[in-house]
Amino acid sequence: MDLSHPNLEERRAQLADLSDLYEALPPALRLCVDTCVDWLDVAALSGRWRIIIPAIFSAMEALLVPGTSGSRPIVTIRSVAVHVALDQGFFDPNEILLAYDLRNDLIHGAPTSDVIATEALEFAEDRRYWAFRVLRDYLKLAKAIQATTVKDLVTKLDGDACLKVCEWLDDHGGARVVAEHRKVVPAAVATPQE
Prior knowledge:
Layout: H1 8-23, H2 27-44, H3 49-64, H4 71-85, H5 93-107, H6 117-145, H7 150-171, H8 175-184, H9 187-190
């Protein structure tokens, strides 16, 4: 945090609110949030995009898909659904997909020599902001629905919020990720109900 920022008091109040939301978490949910925060800390302490991008997605997976494979479509859709469930605006899911693909290249050892370092660092820093917003709204949603486990939150997200995100993606060139999502998440959850 920039301690010379003109809105420092407002930022302190926001952090106090987040701290209160965190302190109110039940133990089972707090473990996942702690894992997320640990990974966000790794991302925050690094100035290297090759560390920031994988750390951010490890953080998001801790919240949205702990212990699950097939994370790319789930992280993309559920991270947006967190905002949708609170009637908030959201980042373009295509940016999440681009970052997740870059993360996959990095952790699977694919060549990234064509990536321009300064642009990648700027992109990674933008993803840090995105991840913080997801965490912030995740904590708000946990309180709003009185979640006690990650399953409670995932069940909430995989309902109407994910359906709305899938519809938006279908309308905005994201049909491929919706199809991937439907392969991983039960059809009754990922497909509009008749």
